[in-house]
Each structure stands twice: as C-alpha cells, then as structure tokens.
Amino acid sequence: MKSIVPFLLFSGILAILLASCDDEYGPRKESTPVFVTAAVSPATFTFGDSVTLTATLNDPATMLASLYYEVVSEGISITTGEIPLSGDTAQITKALFIPLLSNQSDNASVQVNLIARNVLKGAAAYQIEGLTGKRPVYERLYLVTDNGAVALLNMLSADKNKFAGTSLTLDPSFRFRIAEKLTADNRIDYSGDVYGNVNGRIGMIDMNGESAFIYTPNADYTKVLTFDNTSFTLTSTGDLLGADDFALSAFGNQDIENESFRTITRTLEQGKIYTLFGALADVQNIYNPDFFERISESSVQFLGKTGEYTLYYNPVRKNIFVGLSNPSYPDYLLACGWGLGYPTRVTSAEIGSVYPDHQRTHTSWGFGNVMNYVLLRQTGEGVYQGTFYTPGDHDHYAGFKPFENTGWGNEKRAGDFTFTGEQIITGDNDWTIANGENDPIVESANYRFTINLVNKTVHIEKITL
Predict the structure, then answer these.
(1) Those residues with Cβ within 8 angstroms of residue 211's Cβ, 6 or more apart along the chain or in another chain
(2) Helices (H), 355-437
(3) For the chain, how long is the longest CA-to-CA vector?
(4) Could you report the per-residue pLDDT of 427-440, keeping only the tens digit for each?
(5) C-beta of residue 378 within 8 angstroms of C-beta of residue 332
C-alpha cells in the first residue's frame, strides 16, 4: 500500500494541472467541422458507374475524425460509407460506386448527404444537390453459369429493360451471373456491369460478389429465361428431354480409380446428331474426337458403329468418352500401358487438386476398367484411329502397346511398324516415349495415332482440340 498511495496522489495532481493549463496554442474548445468545399463529378452519371467526391474540411479547434456519406435518390438510400480523417484539415478525393437498384427511375434526381465529425463528437452536415442518375442501356446481356456455360440474352423489342435467352439447353437449376461484357475467352469482364446475388436478391456485384440461383420446376432443362432489368427479376420455362438428348439428369454415378464419373448406357447410332443439355454442353468439355464430332456448342454427331455404349463423363477432367462391355478386334484396338489419357483441357494440377496424385494421363497395364486403357476405332479396312494425350506432363514418359482384346490378345509390337509423322515412339516391343538423360523431351500434347495393319504403318500427328 505504501507504494500505491504516492502514485495515486501524483496522478490526481497531474490531472488537475493538465486541466488547468493551456498548451502553446491556447485551450482546446468544443467546435464543429467546417465544409470549405464539397462536390461530386460528373453531375450526370449512369447508375452502376462510379463518381468522384471531392471535399475540403477544417476544424478551428479540434482534430477531424471522419466523413460519413450517403447517396440518396427519390428518398431511397443507394449507398453509404465512412472516410476516416485526421488532423485539423482534410482534402478528400474519393471514388463512390453508385449501384443500380431495382425499380430505379431513369433521369432520377440524386443528392449526396455528408456528415463530418471531430474527435470530440462535434458534427456538421452538408448536402450536394443537382445530380442526375440515368439507367444503363444495354444492347444485350450474357448469362454466365458457374460451370462456364454462356447464353446470350437479347433485348426485347417491346421493352428495352427486358432481356431473354431462347432455345437454351441449361440445367433445371444452376448458379449464374449476368454480365454486360465478356472477355475474348468468354469470361466475365468486370469493367462492365455484372449482376448476381445481393442478400438473397438480384443486384449489381463486383468480382467478389456471389452468384445468383434459379430453379425451373417440372422440367428436364431450362429452355427460356427472361431477365427484367427494372425489377431485377428472372422468369424461366423448361421442357422435357427427347429420346436423342443428352442431359445429366438421366445419368447415374460411378467411381472408377477413385474418380467420380457420371455414366449412362444407351444405343448410339452412327451419323446421328445428339443435343447436349446443361453441363454436358459446356464448351470446355472434350468429346472423344474418335467417336464424336462437335457440331455446335450444344450438339455432337456420333461417328462410331451403331450399338450399345456406356458414356463416361468426368466433371473434373471435363471430358466424355465411350466404353463397351467387350471391345475387341476387328472393330477396335485397345492401347494399355503407361502414359496415355483421353483428351482434356484441364491441367494435371487441377485434376490433382481434386484427385491427389492423378494426372492428365491415366492408363496402366491392365484391362480392369475403362481408365486402364484407351480405344482405337476402326475407320477403314485394317485402319484404326485413336487420339490421346501423351506423354505424362509430370514425367514425359509413356510405355504402352495396342492389343486386339482385353485378354492381351495379339499385341502389336513397335518393331513391326514403320512410324511416320511425329517421331515420338521408340523401341522394338513396347511403344515407348523415352525420358532418359540423353533423350529429347517430347511435348505432352494430344496426338492422333493412325495404325494401318495392312501396310504396317503408324502415322502420328499433333492435334489441336
């Protein structure tokens, strides 16, 4: 206690002295901030753009603390914020984003309310008037789903604030954003207006905003979607699938080699065109080019022999290939071994982030499942075609061999063929892409192998998909 009493006595005396003394500028007094100037430019702007707030403030006796702003149009608060201040004076230049709200009028009167505060809670108000906000005008908008599908929304002739997409092949439910602009690779360009989810409703967002969600009931797919840019509402109608349509709603689930596939078994007819819906129409998807030709973004033509096949769709690899219960010569050759994979645009790093230690290549020595081998389709008498990604981009090695059936029947040795085109294969027995110390590094890419069993030749060409 002896040590505490002197301390408390000193503290009390110090407080009295400080309260009774003036500093070199005189005593501090209660005061209010003063607005010297305040303006917003431009005075006429488009909702969804940014304006610039400039202001000069001072306080005759007290340090400034903050400047609160509120943008108001037609009695509705559009946006608010607070700018921290320090010192006795402040010069402010601040960009303010002015969002477009639902049911916002065109050529609307806008005002900006300002409240400046100092550290002693003194406050002063200021109002900037004479501002005009215009609604944005779009020629078209783009619906961009979270899985990468893009649909054009055209302006309706009867209402410049309504935009519709027709003949769509989207899933019954999906997450999306609506964008004014797209980049060259069909991604959202955030220099334009973008709409998404704002507190459970559609509203303007930036690149950190959330996607919105829609569900079309009693339908296999969403066929028509209309966006009302005045009320920020969406309406959609759907339809049921036809016999020749592909949609994931009809697919089952299957795990293969610790990867998740969507699968369906059905009869496919040679030369027939099939319509793609939802995720299956994603432009990132690669349909095995030896069995399918991509006619459009939402349709493929089957090139194989008419028969029953199982379609395998890998949502991570974003590719689709076919399998049969017992593929064999003369309709097919089967290549198994190391370092082959069905074509995909997804990188090994992206695949490995979902399926640890998996690569773009996936084959092995065996026929236990469709990931162990790849198919070459007969395209002529004794001629077989297969398009594969090879070698592995993690080791630049491949070692495989074609067979006539899953029983290791009639293997095709490399030494029995003459190779033309890309000279990437070595060896007399296995077909090898070597990665030894003195071997040239072969580019990992999509290569098309054309094997002619009649004249014993193999032509290899690099393919861009």
Answers:
(1) 146, 175, 176, 177, 196, 197
(2) none
(3) 110
(4) 999 999 999 999 99
(5) yes
Query: Side chain identity at 220, as an amino acid letter?
Result: D
Give the pair of three-digit tokens for residue 441.
């590094």
pTM here is 0.71
pLDDT tens readout for residues 103-120: 999 999 999 999 999 999
Instruction: Quickly tell me which residue has 């001072």 as its tokens.
Output: 58
Q: What is the pLDDT of residues 323-359, one digit of tens each?
A: 999 999 999 999 999 999 999 999 999 999 999 999 9
Identity of residue 67:
L
Amino acid at 234: L
Q: Which residues, 6 or more positions from 209, have their beta carbon under 8 angstroms from its beta carbon?
A: 177, 194, 196, 197, 198
Measuring CA to CA, how many Å separate 210 from each of 146, 184, 205, 214, 390? 10, 23, 7, 13, 38
Residue for token pair 């003949």: 167
Radius of gyration of the chain (CA): 34
Residue count of the chain: 465
CA atoms within 13 A on the CB side of 280: 28
The full set of domains in the chain, from first to last, is 34-134 (2.60.40.10), 140-239 (2.60.40.3620), 245-462 (no CATH)
Q: Which residues pair with 177 in a beta bridge?
A: 144
Whether the CB-CB separation of 392 and 435 falls below 8 Å is answered with: no
